[in-house]
C-alpha cells in the first residue's frame, strides 16, 4: 500500500480545523512543526496540534524542523501524534532523539535536507522506522521539486534496511509522484495537490492508486 499524507501547512491556514476535517476520511495528517530558527518559516506549535484533535481523529505525524527537537517529543505524544521525524541536521545526538521517540511509544523517523548526502542517514537507519527525504531545497510552498531526488530515493532504497520506509516531501505533484513511487518511496507528503481539489479525500485516493500502480509495475 502506498500512502499519501496530506500536509496541513499547505491548506487554508485561516481555517485549520475545517481543512483537517476535509481529509478526515483519509486517516492521516502531516504536520510541519517549524520554529523559525532551524527553518525559515513558522508554522504550528504543540498547542495547535492539541486543538486539532477537536476536528480530526486522523493519525498524526509530525516533521520537526526545529533546533531542539527532543523538547517537543513528550508533549506531541500527549496530543496524539503517532510518528515524529527529527532532522539529522538539527539533532546533536540523533540516536538519542530516535530512541526517545520510540520509548514514548511513537514511530521514530529521520529527516534529511535535500543537500545532505543520503549515506549520512545509514548509521541511524536501524533506529528509524522511516527516513523522510526532502525533495526540494526548502520545505516551503512554491519551491520546486528537484529531479535528482529520484536518484536519492533509489540510493536510500539500496542502502537502508528492508523494513525502513522511505517518505518523500517537497514539491511532490501528480506528475512526479509515480516516478518517486517507482524509485522506491513508500509514502508521499502532498499539500496543494490535495487541498486545491474540490474533494480532497477523493483526490488522496486517486493519488494513492496512481502511486501504488507505479510501484507495483516497477517491482520495487
UniProtKB/TrEMBL annotation:
Signal peptide as annotated in the record: none
GO molecular function, one term: metal ion binding
Cofactor: Fe(2+); Zn(2+); Mn(2+)
Keywords, ordered alphabetically: Carbohydrate metabolism, Iron, Isomerase, Manganese, Metal-binding, Zinc
Alphabetical list of CDD domains matching this protein: RPE
Pfam families, per the entry: Ribul_P_3_epim (PF00834)
Gene Ontology biological-process annotations: carbohydrate derivative metabolic process; carbohydrate metabolic process; generation of precursor metabolites and energy; nicotinamide nucleotide metabolic process; purine nucleotide metabolic process
UniProt subunit comment: Homodimer.
Protein's UniProt name: Putative ribulose-phosphate 3-epimerase
Protein's organism: [Clostridium] asparagiforme DSM 15981
High-level lineage: Bacteria, Bacillati, Bacillota, Clostridia, Lachnospirales
